[in-house]
Amino acid sequence: MSIVDSIRDHVREHRSGMVSDLLFALAWVTLVEVFFTVVDGPQWAYYLFMLAGIVAYFGFFWSLERAREAR
Q1: Quick one: how far is CA 68 from the chain centroid?
Q2: 56 near 70, Cβ under 8 Å?
């Protein structure tokens, strides 16, 4: 199996997860960019908000998984 076949299989198996990850990342970065364009906050806070996106990502998908289990 070639590397291209491995990548193709991986994308085929995880397509919906990859799309939702990309959409979350785009939404988070857009929101932070818009917020800091309006507020004009310090650079360190901008980076802290971007870093908080990692925590927000795992928190969002964890709570989504818990909500699906509760149904």
Answers
A1: 19
A2: no
pLDDT in tens, 14-42: 787 888 889 999 999 999 999 999 999 99
Q: Are 57 and 28 spatial neighbours (Cβ–Cβ below 8 Å)? A: yes
Q: How many domains does the chain have?
A: 1
Cβ atoms of residues 45 and 35 within 8 Å: no
* CA-wise closest residue to 57 among 36, 33, 38, 31: 31
C-alpha–C-alpha distance, residues 63 and 65, integer Å: 5
Q: 51 and 28 in contact (C-beta within 8 Å)?
A: no
In degrees and rounded to multiples of 5, residue 59 shows phi and psi of -65, -45
Structural domain boundaries enclosing 30: 3-70
From the list 49, 19, 56, the residue with the least C-alpha distance to 34 is: 49
